[in-house]
Amino acid sequence: MNSAILRIRGLDAARYGIENLEIPLGQLICFRGGAGSGAQALAHDVLLGESRRRFLRALSPQDRERFGGLGHPVEMEDASGLPPAQSLPGNLLHGRVVDVLHLRSDLARILQTLVQTTCRHCGGECQHLDDDRAVEVVQTHEAITDRCLVIAPLELSEPPTATVYDELVRAGFPRVLIADEVQRIDSDDAKGRRSTLDQLTIHIVIDRLVPATATPARLGEAIRNARAMAHGRVFLKIENNEQDVRWLNRQFSCRACGLSAQQLVWGHWLDEDEASASNQIAGSTLAGRALADLKTSQIGDFDAWLSNLLEDPLPIHCSTSDHTSLIVRARSLLAPAIELGLGKLPLWRQWSHLAFGERLLLSVAAAISQRLSGLLHVVVPPLSGLPAATLSVVMDGLGRLVTQGGTVVFVDADSAVAARAQVVVDLQKVESQEQQPSAKVQRVERDGMLVIRPRSPVADSTPLDPDLRLDLPLGCLICVDGSSGSGKSALLRQLTLGLTGSADCRSDFAIDATGIRRCLHMSDEVLRASQGTLMQLLTLGRDLARLFAATSSAQEHQLRSESFELERPGGRCARCEGVGEIVHRLEYVEDLVVICPDCEGRRFREEVFVATVRGASIGDLMEMTVDEAARFLHREQRPQAILRAAQVDGLASYQLGTPVHRLDRLLILRALLAAHAGRADHRDLFLVERAGAGEDQAGARQVHESLRRLVARGATVVATRAMAVTPDNADWLVSMGPGTGAAGGRIVVSKQVSGPA
Ligand SMILES: [Zn+2]
Ligand SMILES: [Zn+2]
């Protein structure tokens, strides 16, 4: 039981929803709160951010830059008891399931050890034997009971001189083997000397013994001596049998003829993307299974194969303990994934093709198998959008991390989800504007379809059925339903690739959407929005710049439109480039962020402020909240539409100049949806993953209304099922399944939702 406590004092309550945070470690903890409550910011910026900064501070400045720099420090008085924190799901950009489970190098070693290579010259078995292993093989496995000579095959660059012979004799090796006869070399006219005068290879007798009964120390010394003399090469000449020679080279080589061989580097084969493979692999089997199939196997199958390997007879060169521990370790990495229901997940599937639920479960499984106690696991994406069955498994997995001595923090607004935590930290919504549900939106009916067809040849890289066909109506709200892993996210991803992808990164399907000009995957848009201000998120910059440029004061001072924009040089402060802050990257201590001394945080050069609209400069405008700006700009049509939308979307009390990094992801999504309220039309397709997940009920309703607003302008919205978009409140339902993983990826239902009469 962990009785330590994490304490953080002096936080900005307006931003993080709490001033002093105190949580017991070793528990399952929920930060309860929706958009703007600070719950996400507290988990992401404070817990993950501070832990990351502590880790990075221990690195050199160059390494820090490589990891993306220290980031914005959190203002706080002090923090104690903060353990190293890890984000779940992890944020892997490349890589596959096998990498998340840290299995790749173990698998390479298993193959390296077990797969038998045969000699190209004589067909003998090729092996690599270290000193101890060589002793074990001839003494125990092969148990040679005949008397043997231990021979060092000494290679010379020129025929031996008297000095060479003398040195060998002085070292205690006065005999050589010539044509199966032992000859002495300890005098000038010895037969051994005379017969080897023109030879470049001399077979020196190191010892004469019976391997099965010799002491391991004596046998080992003979092998080591021979190897030292002959560059790692040594063989046993069995007496009474002219043909029988056993090579025991340190290098990978043939046991029968001693020729060195190329060992296939399995790590490279595993790293290759294509299951192309050389002939060597094509024919190889291990435990009854073709190796070429390994790359298509699922987690559960793969584990069964490993278990068969344990029962298979061992190749002679493997020591039982090494082999067993390798396989047992690999199985222990797989076990949590299987227990969390991921047995059907293909081991070589790309991380980027996994559904959110799969990513989360896989990351949890990997964290369980790493057995690192004392970590803080932080789940920032809300869990409430997950199907009930998946949610239960996720909670079980998180519970196991706690049992192993870890601490888990997750963020959600949903009380049912929060109820599964041992400790709930309630975060206050900074702003809670009672929302009026918007008037019944008249849907704009129009022609046009979004058509998805298989492309030939079919690529097999997505979890979707390669033969998937789907026709969707445009200009409506479409809900994609199905259990976690059934292919919902993958479908959205394919739409993005199909409509925006480049030639080398295109969809696996032919996607035709005549009339669609712009396709926006909102998760990508949220991630992209990391800099600038709320004003820029709301895309108000250009409109406001024009407004100011049109004033007489601006014209008088020759200020043009770009003088009022933050995106480009002109009117913005040259020192901070319109950011308002300056970050000093210091060598050994925390980065220092100071308000820009030139503009005092106002982002523009002083002379820009002479231009005023109804008494307010652009600087004044950026200090206005969304509410104030909406009133102030009531005559400007487009800004008005956007600001109204932002007001309704819960951003009313945020200043236009609020830096984006101070908004949580839910608020950023709301701001982006509000921005599109001012310009979306029938040419736009919006893809929204897990719409409204993490919001409370009112918040989810709000997100639904924001999406409806886009549809009312003629746009098409495709959203995966979550709190804001369900089969009941959408216009069209696509149901994916029937199962998950390989049993999913197909369209089960695609139909119009029959609304209430
Ligand atoms: Zn050979
Ligand atoms: Zn400045």
Supply the key terms.
757 residues, alpha/beta, Rossmann fold, Ribulose 1,5 Bisphosphate Carboxylase/Oxygenase, 5 domains, binds zinc ion
Please describe what this structure looks like.
It is a single chain. This protein has 757 residues and is α/β, with parallel strands linked by helices. It folds into 5 domains: 5-94 and 350-426, Rossmann fold, CATH 3.40.50.300; 98-112 and 264-339, no CATH class; 118-254, Ribosomal protein L1/L10, rRNA-binding domain (Ribulose 1,5 Bisphosphate Carboxylase/Oxygenase, 2-Layer Sandwich), CATH 3.30.190.20; 433-517 and 683-757, P-loop containing nucleotide triphosphate hydrolases (Rossmann fold, 3-Layer(aba) Sandwich); 532-659, ABC transporter ATPase like fold. It contains 26 helices and 30 strands. α12 (299-311) runs antiparallel to α13 (320-339), α24 packs antiparallel against α25 (665-676) and α24 (637-651) packs antiparallel against α26 (697-712). The two termini are 58 Å apart. The structure holds zinc ion (2 copies). One zinc ion (ZN) is lined by residues 119, 121-122, 124, 254, 256-257, 259. Residues 119, 121-122, 124, 254, 256-257, 259 line the site of one zinc ion (ZN).
Tell me the number of helical segments per DSSP (H or I, 4 or more residues long).
26
Shape: elongated
What is the number of independent domains? Answer: 5
Strand order of the largest sheet: 10-9-11-8-12-13
What's the total number of strands? 30
- Average pLDDT, rounded to a whole number, is 83
Structural class: alpha/beta
Percentage of β-strand residues: 15-25%
